[in-house]
């Protein structure tokens, strides 16, 4: 009976489309690259109040990042800036970007193909997948807000921030971004100490990077109550599509999962015309209500159809007979014995 009730509640259609979103899957951390400028991430920050945007490029190995202020964010302008950056540091092996129109354009993909650079596009509507550059943007944005509040020149304040950031030891690696990028420390106004030997430094940063990532993953998974998703290829799922407070949490029409890679799924629309790439956290497995005669609990040996009904009726009749016999037998069956004080008397 409990299983029937639970199944009935879980398969409530109206409840499913307005229910709370699913908990995310356990975090998957990015592997530490083998060398500087081997794997980079790109993102656009903005638009700012004056209409300009900032292109941010982060190196996964050193955490060194480059910036460029743009008045236009069209694909050709983004490619022009990246060509200038690549001319200084060389071509990376992979580039991670979101699904913005500049990075999803065929012209941008052709530019990367010509330069033999692998494009890794993150899951739509899931900024955590490009976490390194998103985290840098959060730090970077504080400087921009201060410059705007004090009405200072944005370009000059940006350069001050960059030299301070590049010459400060990173919390994860324990070394400065400039030192890991160029194998030397850049000179600043602060006095310098003797540098750590290069070989010892590389061993330390790999251990520190792994430790910090594992610690961050453990904390995030515990805070978000993360657990593995039960969504698989072929399942019917509900997809998040919320626009305002009155819109249901999930699209009322179930979608079909046609592909799954890690925490990323590709779902197909009900009419089969469109496919969407989403994080598995943006979907919820659709539970259908079972039709009469279907098996609901195979573990208890209960069968379907007429046999189940006849078996249930036999149990009911048996219980009824027991109840009737219990009503007729009102006196206890134990041996009754008079108290010792009545041994010298005849008691009827």
Question: Can you describe this structure?
Answer:
With 348 residues, the protein is of the alpha+beta class. Helices cover 37% and strands 15% of the residues. It is built from 10 helices and 10 strands. It has helices at 2-10, 13-17, 75-89, 101-104, 106-114, 131-149, 154-166, 177-182, 198-223, 306-328, and strands at 39-45, 53-59, 65-70, 94-97, 118-121, 236-239, 255-261, 264-268, 275-279, 283-285. The strands form 2 sheets. The protein has a 5-stranded mixed sheet with strand order 3-2-1-4-5, with helices on both faces. Strands 9-8-7-6-10 form a 5-stranded antiparallel sheet, with no helix packed on it. Helix 6 (131-149) packs across helix 7. Residues 291-327 have low confidence and may be disordered.
Brief digest:
By secondary structure, the chain is α+β, with helices and mostly antiparallel strands.
Quaternary class: single chain
Structural class: alpha+beta
Report the mean per-residue pLDDT as an integer: 79
| C-alpha-based Rg, rounded | 33 Å
The parts where pLDDT drops under 50 for at least 5 residues are 291-327
What helical percentage do the residues reach? 25-40%
Beta-strand residue fraction: 5-15%
Write down the overall geometry.
Answer: elongated
Query: What is the strand arrangement across the widest sheet?
Result: 3-2-1-4-5
Biggest sheet record: 5 strands, mixed
Distance between the terminal alpha carbons, to the nearest Å? 52 Å
Q: With helices defined by DSSP (H or I, 4 residues minimum), what is the helix count?
A: 10
Number of strands: 10
Order of SSEs? HHEEEHEHHEHHHHEEEEEH
């Amino acid at each position: 009976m409990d299983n029937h009730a639970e199944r009935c509640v879980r398969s409530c259609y109206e409840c499913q489309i307005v229910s709370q979103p699913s908990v995310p899957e356990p975090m998957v951390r990015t592997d530490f690259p083998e060398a500087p400028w081997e794997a980079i991430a790109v993102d656009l920050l903005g638009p700012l109040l004056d209409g300009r945007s900032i292109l941010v490029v982060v190196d996964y190995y050193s955490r060194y990042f480059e910036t460029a202020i743009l008045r236009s964010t069209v694909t050709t302008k983004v490619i022009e800036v990246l060509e200038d950056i690549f001319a200084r540091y060389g071509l990376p092996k992979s580039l991670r970007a979101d699904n913005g129109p500049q990075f999803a354009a065929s012209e941008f993909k052709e530019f990367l193909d010509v330069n033999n650079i692998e494009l890794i596009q993150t899951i739509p509507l899931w900024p955590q997948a490009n976490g390194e550059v998103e985290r840098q943007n959060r730090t970077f944005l504080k400087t921009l807000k201060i410059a705007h509040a004090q009405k200072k020149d944005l370009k000059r304040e940006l350069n001050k921030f960059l030299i301070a950031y590049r010459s400060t030891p990173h919390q994860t690696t324990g070394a400065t971004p400039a030192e890991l990028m160029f194998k030397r420390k850049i000179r600043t106004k602060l006095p310098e100490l003797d540098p750590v030997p290069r070989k010892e430094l590389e061993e330390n940063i790999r251990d520190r990077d792994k430790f910090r990532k594992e610690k961050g993953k453990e904390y995030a998974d515990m805070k978000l109550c993360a657990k593995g998703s039960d969504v698989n290829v072929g399942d019917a799922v509900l997809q998040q599509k919320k626009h305002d407070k009155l819109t249901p949490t999930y699209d009322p029409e179930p979608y079909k999962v046609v592909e799954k890679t890690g925490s990323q799924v590709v779902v197909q629309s009900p009419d089969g015309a469109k496919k969407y790439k989403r994080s598995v956290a943006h979907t919820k497995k659709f539970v259908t209500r079972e039709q009469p005669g279907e098996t609901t609990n195979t573990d208890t040996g209960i069968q379907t159809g007429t046999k189940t009904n006849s078996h249930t009726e036999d149990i009911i009749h048996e219980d009824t007979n027991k109840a009737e016999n219990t009503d007729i037998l009102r006196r206890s069956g134990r041996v009754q014995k008079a108290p010792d004080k009545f041994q010298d008397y005849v008691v009827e």
